[in-house]
Amino acid sequence: MTTVQAHAIDIDEANFEAEVLQASLTAPVLVDFWATWCGPCKTLGPMLEKLADEYAGGFRLAKVDVDKNQQLAAMFGIRSIPTVMLVKDGQIVDGFAGALPEGQLREFLAQHQVLPGEAADNDEEAAPAAVEESPEQAINRLQQAIAAEPERSELKLDLALALLRAGQADAAQAELDALPVNLATDARAVRLRSQLDLARSLQGAPSLGELRQRVDTDGADWAARDLLGVRLLLENDPAAGLEQFLHLLEHARDWNDGAAKKRLIAAFATLDDAELVGHYRRRMASLLF
């Protein structure tokens, strides 16, 4: 066992129960599955270590080398790396695959109420909390990084994701199409292509607020409910988006040539949360059969 830093630790089968499961009873544990040969891991790992240090006990970073700990990787069902799992109170509550940009890492932590520890809050010399990175800022940062290190193809995948978040679907598609073969079939690239297909349906669509108002005014405004589902799905509230599609499936199954079923299937392809997808697949099946 080798401690990486004050709030990060190397994990193996021997210390897993104590340092992950038991430790998660007092503070969230972020489990990073990585390998020395994994290029994206070299991008993600340092960012996670930086955040663990910055949060100063708000969460603990547990690093698992999958080559040395194949049983642990199998237990978590790891299919690609890097993969990160969040463990609270002895249970896996969420996770993601791939090297997310720092801004999205902060969003992920915030979504699960993972906050800086008291040491970070009370440190007068600590750097001020970073402002959440906007998609435009991420695009600028990634374009500069690619210019400096053009051989790091994984950055182009990050750029495609940032472009999509900024509403630049065509530019995101161009970046995806230019990816090398090894990244073109990456799980994140596959999901991003599905997200792009959904995003194109929002071209010229009303805002989230307008769509909510339309649905509240007329619950049978199926077009508005459909677009509301897409917006929610792509704007970081996937469960709420799936609920809109399920409502459509239940009350207007044949509307627009069975659009609700198609939306649900497309939505499942954009998500890497197996538990969430499984839950809504079962609900869809109960309505269809």
Short description:
Helices cover 56% and strands 11% of the residues.
Protein described:
- With 289 residues, this protein is of the alpha/beta class.
- The protein has three domains: 3-122, 3-Layer(aba) Sandwich (Glutaredoxin), CATH 3.40.30; 135-200, Serine Threonine Protein Phosphatase 5, Tetratricopeptide repeat; 208-288, Serine Threonine Protein Phosphatase 5, Tetratricopeptide repeat, CATH 1.25.40.
- 56% of the residues lie in helices and 11% in strands.
- The chain has helices at residues 16-22, 39-55, 70-75, 102-111, 118-122, 135-148, 154-165, 169-177, 181-184, 187-200, 208-217, 222-234, 238-251, 259-270, 274-288, and strands spanning 3-5, 8-10, 29-34, 60-65, 83-88, 91-97.
- Strands 1-2-4-3-5-6 form a six-stranded mixed beta sheet, sandwiched between helices.
- A hairpin with a 2-residue loop joins strand 1 and strand 2 (8-10).
- Helix 10 runs antiparallel to helix 14 (259-270) and helix 12 packs antiparallel against helix 13.
- The longest helix has 17 residues, at 39-55.
- The chain starts with a strand and ends with a helix.
- The relative contact order is 0.08.
- Mean pLDDT is 84; it is low at 119-130.
Low-pLDDT residue spans: 119-130
**Order of strands side by side in the largest beta sheet?**
1-2-4-3-5-6
* Count of domains: 3
CATH superfamily of the largest domain: Glutaredoxin
Would you report the number of β strands?
6
Question: Beta-strand percentage?
Answer: 5-15%
Helical run tally? 15
Name of the CATH first level of the largest domain? Alpha Beta
- CATH architecture assignment of the largest domain: 3-Layer(aba) Sandwich
